[in-house]
Write a structure and sequence with these properties.
209 residues, disordered N terminus, single chain, mainly alpha, Tetracycline Repressor, domain 2
């Protein structure tokens, strides 16, 4: 007897049209868990095994998404810079170009703090982990960091030209001092106490007039 083989000749969907695999759908969950653990424990004290345990995957299964812990950290930290960059730029732009410089600087400080302390584990993870990641990862993230610093540099240079900074304040020194103080708040500020209005007011008063 001759066996007849029937072939399905209907066109197969292209890769981008196929439903995502279950493993593909968990990429965001991996990133969210990694950001939370990196924020809480730091880069060196967080392992792929720790991340996998919270996601419900074996550590080896994470390699389906990320080739290494360094690659995973690079994505988490990149998102962290991107989120605070977008938040600050949006807050300043939302006031319009005619807004007083003091109000624009206050909006930038508030947006940075809100993102760092309340809104984003990713931004907090970046601040906590960046000093301890491998040099190659620092190099990879350097452009994103410079892009964000440019927002502050432009804002404070404009404030200096408008004589809106406190007397004797150099805009580049102000940028370093403001960002340093904002990022250090991650170590001592308790979000459970509410939004950091007092810190915002103090910093605005210190650097502007």
């Amino acid at each position: 007897m001759t066996e007849t083989i029937t072939r399905d000749l209907r066109p197969r969907p292209r890769a981008e049209e196929r439903p995502p695999k279950r493993a593909e759908a968990s990429r965001q969950q991996i990133l969210d868990v990694a950001a939370s653990l990196f924020r809480a424990r730091g880069y060196t004290e967080t392992s792929l095994r720790d991340i996998g345990a919270q996601v419900g995957m074996k550590a080896g299964s994470l390699y389906y998404h990320f080739a290494s812990k360094e690659e995973l950290a690079a994505e988490v930290l990149r998102i962290g810079v991107q989120r605070v960059h977008e938040a600050v730029a949006s807050a300043v732009a939302g006031l319009g170009p005619e807004a007083p410089m003091k109000a624009r600087i206050e909006a930038a400080i508030a947006a940075h703090l809100e993102t760092l302390l309340v809104e984003s584990d990713y931004t907090s993870a970046h601040i906590r982990c960046f000093p301890y990641v491998p040099p190659s990862l620092k190099t990879e993230l350097s452009q994103a960091r410079r892009d964000y610093e440019t927002v502050w540099r432009g804002l404070l240079d404009e404030a200096s030209a408008a004589k809106a900074l406190a007397p004797g304040i150099d805009p580049e020194v102000a940028r370093l001092a403001i960002l340093g103080a904002l990022n250090w708040s991650l170590e001592w500020f308790d979000p459970a106490r509410g939004r950091p209005e007092e810190l915002i007011r103090t910093m605005v008063a210190a650097f502007t007039r």
